[in-house]
Amino acid sequence: MKKVLSWLLMAVMLLSCAALAEETVAATVIDFEDGNFAMLGMNTASGDADASVLTVEDYNGSKALHVDVKAKVPYVALNVEGLLGDNLEKVRSISFDVGVELGSDGKFYAASGKVYTLTDAGETKVGYDWSVYLERKNPKTAKVTLADVFFTNGAGDTLMITKESDAFVDSDKFPGEEPRDIWIDNIQFLDETGAALPLDLTAVWTAPVTGVDLSNLSVLSGAVALEGMAVEGGAWGQNGVEMTEEFLAALVPGSVIEISYESEDGSMWLVFPDSAAGWMRVCDGGKATTNNSKNIAQITYEQIAAVLGEDTSTWGARLQCEAATNWKVYSVKVGTKGPRMALTNAVEFAGFACEGGAWGQNGFEFTQEVLDALQPGTALEINFESEDGSMWIVLPDSAAGWMRVAEGGAATIIGDKAYVTYEQIVEKCGEDKSTWGARLQCEAATNWKVFSVKVGTVKQLVGLKDKVDFAGFACEGGAWGQNGFEMTPEIIAALVPGSIVSISYESEDGSMWIVMPDSAAGWMRVGDGGKAACDGSEAQITYEQIVEMCGEDVSTWGARMQCESATNWKVYSVSVAQAQ
Amino acid sequence: MKKMTALFVALVMLLSVCSFAVAEEPRHILIGTTWDMYWDSTHESIDVNPYYSGKETDQMIFENVKKVEEENNVTFEYVNMLYAGAQESINTSILAGTPDVDIYTVGLAIGAPAVANGYAVDLRDVLPADHPVLTGEDPIMTYIDTGDGSVSLLTANNKENIVGSTYPLSFNLQMIQDANLEDPRDLVERGEWTWDKFREYCKALTKDTDGDGTIDVYGFGGWPGDYMPNILMSNGTYIAATATENLSSPEVAECLQFVQDLNLVDGVMYPIPEENGWDICRVLYRDQKVAFCPNAAWIMSSNDDYGYQSGTPVLDFDMVFVPWPVGPSGNAETNKHKVAESSCFMIPVGTEDPELVFNVLYDIQNWFNGDLSIRDDEEALDWWYGVTAKDIDLQDHNFEVMYQMGLKQQYEMVSNLGFELPFRELIAGDYTVAQFQETYKQQVQDAIDGLMGN
User: Fold this and answer.
1) pTM (predicted TM-score)
2) In chain B, which residue's Cα lies nearest the Cα of A135?
3) Which one of A137, B87, B139, B151 has the fewest CB atoms closer than 10 angstroms to its CB?
């Protein structure tokens, strides 16, 4: 009996141990064997980011993450907070297997990239190299060791794996071919002893909420949406709905139709199948303005009128969309076009978030920083919403008396932002800021909410049309370093009065301008010193600004156009266009 | 017995054939690069190079591949490892004792730390002591001395490589003539081109030409980044050429004092603007605001001074190149004149038979079979001649100055420290020389440690 008991006891202990072991063994590697890759995704926020397609496929004898690179730099981002939880702060190195697709000629071409850690709410970005540089070491295990900057759990830190150099593309032997794909497998996070940290593989990565890409576009005010306009179609296939009376009424000179969409080749235009002028395509062949992300297109009233005539009653009942490849449209709206306002040298009014009822004021005491920043040429930027779209400010303690400023439509309203200039305040309250009183309040004619207030110098970026791309213009430079290319005949031809040089870029301080190094007038900077309209991702320099420095005769501007910034910079593309 | 003999003979023959075959198996030499290089044993057609334009010299390089293979019983292949790959390969495979490739072709930023860490073969241990590459007399290849005397970083000894990245001192010939000063070229010739003489000239050439109380022409002016390395070399010194910083040395102090005195004591230096400094300083000579200035072929080309690009000369005066004057601690014979910047070849430690590898590399470089007139054909170097002067004789002279300067290279990391030493502020008098040295010596040392991977 004792024997039976002891056997029973042993069996129970064994079962307990096994159960315990099952409970405590956690995954320490992302090996993709179950096909799950929800813990990562493509981050397309950067100007050079590629919209690579991620899948899990068989590779090198097991499942691996296939990064199908389309054109630019893939940023594969991981939800490291979800994966590692409290252990995130212990991460000292990261290892993963990486393999590179062979060239279309069947030969190996090296590739390299970075592992980026993004900490301090994205303010600190540190990159560590990985590379696959020999055929016999493809695939290989890459390991990067973090130096000095480590993760903090709960701070929104993240990690991205990129591929930035590609000897296949760099060889210039395969024009038009896509960059090589990569496969990633067996991702591990190691502590200072080299032990793999446990991972929660149920973590899910969500794309960061980034601002809408408004590059090249106008901002719509008083927009009216076309109900039911969420449709799709195949290549060269039309689909749409009947225009509502409200939508048609908003289609007036100075208005613009905005289409939120996606299509395989980025194309998008309108079709008016019932027009009195006949079945008509409008802005096909790349004439619609699209943002750099190719997911918002704009077509102005004037562009439509040029095809169908001025009388909207003859445009027919239906509005359709179309593209040269498979497409989807998520929304269509029409509104009055206005410039994008970009605040430079912005100073935030710390803590300014409040709300009020119709004709009700609410606000805070001025900070010295905000008062100091309010100088000639600056404006208050109020990020707000209100039922009727109105917004202005009140200075209740002004020596000139309780004072409304920019009320009754005098504030410039662009989308969800209202701009009240320093000059408008001076007009009501005088130049002496010490007499403006202690408080700044907001007010609207209907219920309102204000989310933030900033002060800065306002620049206006206009919507563009008839864009001519500066082929191959992608380069980078250090602070006050120039880099660029010889202007193509197409670019020179596009540089006419009224044209605008548009630069898609990033720089550490947001500045960007151009240099005409071979100008007959001498080596010339154009748009420096804050003269270019820049919003941190797009810079616009007018033809007239170039004329001011280099003279009227384009033939004397020299062969090259270069970019430059006061800090390290990257330019992703350059084009010359006309204002919408 | 006959059968036995026949079998024996057959066996011997088979063994002989086998051993012959083994002996004849060519070795495959891998050459790691950080960019695409053509042509090698894997390239069956000359057209594999997308930039091939039918030049005769390209045909010679292509045909040389077979010659290299036959003479050394090797095949060879360029492997573009990209920058990050080459760096990783050097830091991992050499350390592990099994280098990935037999030769690395890299920039100095990778090569110099590799040498400092003992990753590169010192050819003094491989080649006979009187080998012309070691003695610096070889017309095909030379080497960059990173301070320890080792012969590890090889470069092609062609003229384009040599004249590239030189920053001669240039002077406005008409200003010198108008001032009735002896041509500095004659002073160079007689070994009298010294800091003192240069200072004298600068004083004589600094002028208020319209008598309004404002200086209109300064003796000297330029961007410090363009001339400080040359001032240092002219005094036989450097700031960051070895594992230990040299900013705090007395020789460097002399250099710093010299440039500060030109400004503060003599008042002969064009005031360096606080903003847009290098852009403004690089066009001062064009506006005849300075008599002497640092210059370079690329600067004059970008300004199209003598119409090389446009065909229409912009300048109606001549800029003449001379080497930098000799400082009190310098020596006209031994002073260096160019900061080494070329890409270089490095044979990694652990490579089998490094002498064979060196010979292959040497033969690849000698695609012109020793005929320097082919390699250094003046027509091919036309840009280097054409951009610095309109007069043919002066073009030849300026090229020769660049060439002679380029032959004497100094390894110097001062431009790669990751920060700029504030020479402008020193020259403006914001620091005394002692303050400057004391303030920045540790920062320079830290940067050197970082570059050397310490």
Assistant:
1) 0.65
2) B79
3) B139
